[in-house]
């Protein structure tokens, strides 16, 4: 067996992910489910991370890139190929193709810009909208994402119906996903969901699975696993009926994601963020998501094992697919964190009935070695997810002993001290008032006039009003205080 290229040794030394195990999928069958730029990006990711599939993946990536018009993407694929296998003749840049495609792209760009300029001179909004859309699609195909977003954004000035707004935002969402601008993706999804006619069964509702998938990807990319899980779980199953080999199928979204990906992403995010009750009610009992889980039965098995408290079996299933997940374009950055969260929740649930567990028993229960379980426990105790301590001398995990009797006594003493202080403050106030030491606020002249005009029945009691009326009553020789200024 030939040795691995030095590239992977250097990548591993630099801390990058290198997958040495062979994944469970066949590359040709796997990549056939995708189209567009995501197909090339996924092949590039597999080629630069897998010691088993790098040659096959990079060869396919160069071939796919050469079929399109994105010159910079083709050059990036050839450069990656050359960096890993410099002696391979397929890692040579086709200068003739680059020059020819560059000229064709420039001619096409000039033609579309000239057409758009003519449409603007004619002041026909629909023509301007279509011209902006064609130009944006062209820029997207050649990999110029900045100008693609500008072209699609200019279309906003000429849209006339909610359907046109929806199409524009779908294009912006697609470009933002390829660009990796996840905040813009979430913004586009929110705008689409708030359009008039949403929820009435129209074109916007038919795109619901795409919106759920895009929002789930954006939330997963930002580490919001609970929100991402809810987005994926809410995806309508109509995407399952799409023909992946038909680019004109409106339900197909394999230029970004496939139904299998929704099952995997949704299931793993749910495992990382939900408890057993939520996993049962929101995932396993979810009639819509159950259709997606049928495409990836191992995800369903892992969730079922976790719900049934069979944590070792659940982790075994996840570990057997680790290589596949590390070679996924969107999931590979989150595999370590998701696995850590699943293992942490399992350890917490396993440890609840015990006050003391040996590290050997924990390692056996979770199908790992003691060194790994100790590192996991240290991380969990450090981030506060596990309230326990490790005795490395006796090789045991000890739960923190809580003296409930002492806690009750301390709470009662604290409450008694609080009551005592409150009582002392109230007695002090009573003594101050009794001694006439209370400082009263000054009385303003306008308040005196209001009190005199309104009287005790016309508003709140006023000392100034009462004094004023007493003075008036004495001046008229009356003994009552209820006199009026005009009596």
How would you describe what is shown here?
The protein is mainly alpha-helical and about 475 residues long. Helices cover about 65% and strands about 0% of the residues. It has 25 helices and three strands. It has helices at about 5-15, 25-30, 35-45, 55-65, 70-85, 95-120, 125-140, 145-155, 160-180, 180-195, 205, 210-220, 225-235, 260-275, 275-285, 285-295, 295-305, 310-320, 320-325, 335-350, 360-365, 370-385, 405-435, 445-455, 465-475; strands spanning about 355-360, 390, 395-400. Strands 1-3-2 form a three-stranded antiparallel beta sheet. Helix 4 (about 55-65) packs antiparallel against helix 5 (about 70-85) and helix 12 (about 210-220) packs antiparallel against helix 13. The longest helix has about 30 residues, at about 405-435. Mean pLDDT is about 85; it is low at about 450-485.
């Amino acid at each position: 067996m030939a040795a691995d290229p030095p590239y992977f040794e250097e990548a591993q030394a630099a801390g990058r992910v290198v997958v040495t195990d062979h994944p469970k999928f066949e590359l040709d069958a796997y990549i056939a489910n995708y189209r567009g730029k995501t197909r090339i990006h996924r092949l590039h990711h597999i080629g630069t991370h897998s010691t088993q599939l790098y040659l096959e993946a990079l060869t396919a990536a160069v071939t796919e890139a050469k079929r399109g018009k994105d010159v910079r993407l083709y050059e990036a694929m050839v450069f990656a190929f050359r960096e890993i296998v410099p002696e391979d003749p397929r890692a040579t840049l086709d200068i003739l193709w680059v020059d020819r495609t560059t000229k064709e792209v420039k001619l096409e760009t000039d033609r579309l810009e000239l057409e758009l300029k003519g449409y603007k001179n004619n002041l026909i909004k629909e023509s301007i909208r279509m011209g902006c859309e064609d130009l944006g699609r062209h820029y997207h195909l050649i990999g110029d994402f900045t100008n693609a977003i500008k072209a699609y954004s200019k279309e906003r000035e000429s849209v006339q119906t909610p359907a046109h707004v929806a199409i524009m935002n779908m294009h912006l969402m697609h470009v933002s996903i390829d660009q990796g601008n996840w905040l813009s993706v979430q913004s586009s999804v929110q705008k689409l969901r708030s359009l008039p006619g949403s929820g009435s069964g129209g074109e916007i509702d038919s795109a619901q699975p795409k919106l759920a998938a895009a929002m789930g990807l954006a939330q997963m990319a930002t580490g919001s696993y609970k929100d991402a899980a809810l987005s994926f779980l809410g995806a309508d199953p109509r995407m399952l009926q799409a023909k992946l080999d038909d680019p004109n199928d409106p339900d197909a979204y394999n230029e970004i994601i496939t139904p299998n990906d929704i099952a995997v992403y949704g299931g793993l995010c749910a495992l990382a963020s939900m408890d057993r009750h939520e996993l049962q009610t929101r995932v396993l009992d979810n009639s819509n998501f159950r259709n997606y889980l049928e495409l990836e039965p191992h995800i369903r098995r892992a969730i079922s094992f976790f719900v049934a408290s069979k944590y070792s079996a659940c982790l075994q299933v996840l570990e057997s697919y680790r290589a596949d997940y590390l070679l996924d374009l969107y999931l590979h950055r989150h595999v370590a964190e998701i696995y850590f969260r699943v293992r942490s929740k399992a350890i917490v649930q396993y440890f609840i009935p015990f006050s003391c567990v040996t590290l050997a028993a924990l390692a056996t229960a979770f199908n790992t070695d003691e060194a790994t379980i100790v590192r996991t426990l240290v991380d969990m105790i450090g981030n506060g997810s596990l309230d326990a301590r490790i005795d490395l001398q006796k090789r045991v995990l000890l739960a923190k002993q809580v003296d409930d009797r002492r806690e009750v006594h301390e709470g009662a003493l604290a409450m008694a001290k609080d009551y005592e202080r409150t009582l002392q403050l109230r007695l002090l106030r009573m003594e101050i008032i009794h001694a006439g030491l209370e400082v009263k606020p000054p009385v303003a002249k306008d308040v005196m006039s209001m009190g005199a005009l309104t009287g005790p029945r016309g508003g709140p009691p006023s000392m100034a009003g009462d004094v004023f009326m007493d003075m008036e009553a004495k001046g008229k020789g009356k003994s009552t205080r209820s006199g009026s200024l005009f009596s």
